[in-house]
Design a protein that fits this description.
Elements (H helix, E strand, L loop, with lengths): L2 H20 L2 H5 L5 H22 L5 H14 L11 H11 L3 H12 L10 H23 L5 H20 L1 H6 L8 H6 L4 H5 L4 H24 L10 H19 L13 H15 L1
Length: 286
């Protein structure tokens, strides 16, 4: 094995290790892909995981984390001494798939916005954030999945919104603990009489439940929109995305049925539930 091949193999192993460690539903969904595409999506997922972890590394100074994210933006276009370990693999991926560098850079910018105190006045502002950290990821994924239908772009954007909003609702307590992040729009909190102090004191109650139900209805509408926009011609290519849609919709439904007890528990879908969803998607795509 020559030096270039050895380096590429090392980066593949690193990306796979990062993906396995995450124990994410995304890693499960990737199993439906052919081996080569699976390796490529694992590299991209590892990149997203590393970027997100940099933003979330609470023990590191903000200036240091910002510098590391800026180094990643630079690494998308050029190599340099001390560049991030996965940078060569990402540049190779971007070249082979002709990925839009601006879209990939948006993912970094979205994570960088988490370095400052998070505050969204309106739902539109929140959607702008969701576009950067989730819809942009989806737009890259459909290229790696091999989608050919132009409608896949609309599907990726809508699904990204829905998945990220579900994440935000599920992780209200976790985000508060990580730098006091509050993603719920201030105008919606005011509408239902929920204050930042209520959230910090982990006060659920009727007003909080009404706020969460209101946002959940928005997420459900976005899932419905994504469902309507599914590119049937690309049904085999989007199997991983469809698994994620069903897994996260199940999480959203579980929260609603359980009264949004997000300060008391973390909502997940177990292995059997994921396997049932995978079978459902395989049958749909057959």
């Amino acid at each position: 094995m020559n030096a270039a091949a050895a380096a590429a193999n090392h980066q593949n192993v690193t990306a796979e290790a990062i993906t396995r460690k995450s124990k994410s539903s995304f890693a499960f969904a990737f199993l439906s892909l052919p081996p080569e595409r699976r390796r490529d999506i694992v590299t991209f997922y590892a990149f997203c995981r590393v970027i997100d972890d940099i933003a979330d590394e609470a023990d590191a100074p903000v200036a240091e984390r910002a510098a590391r994210l800026e180094a990643w933006k630079r690494a998308l276009t050029e190599s340099f001494a001390g560049e991030p370990e996965l940078a060569p693999a990402m540049r190779d991926l971007m070249e082979r798939y002709q990925l839009d560098r601006e879209v990939v850079a948006l993912i970094i910018e979205g994570c960088a916005s988490d370095l400052a105190p998070v505050h969204f006045e309106t739902f539109d502002q929140l959607l702008g954030y969701c576009y950067r950290v989730a819809s942009a990821v989806g737009l890259v994924c459909i290229e790696l999945f091999g989608c050919r239908d132009q409608g896949a772009h609309r599907y990726a954007v809508s699904l990204g919104y829905a998945l990220q909003l579900t994440n935000i609702l599920r992780d209200v307590a976790k985000d508060l603990a990580n730098g006091g992040r509050i993603y719920l729009p201030a105008e919606d909190m005011a509408r239902f009489g929920v204050t930042e102090e209520d959230l910090r004191e982990r006060q659920g109650g009727h007003r909080f439940g009404s706020l969460m139900a209101f946002e959940a209805e928005r997420a459900e509408a976005l899932y419905a929109q994504a469902l309507a926009e599914r590119p049937f011609r690309d049904r085999r290519a989007i199997m991983p995305a469809e698994m994620m849609r069903l897994i996260y919709y199940k999480i959203l439904t579980g929260m609603r049925q359980d009264g949004f007890r997000v300060f008391e528990k973390t909502y997940r879908v177990g292995k059997l539930g994921k396997l049932a969803i995978a079978l459902r998607v395989f049958l749909w795509a057959a």
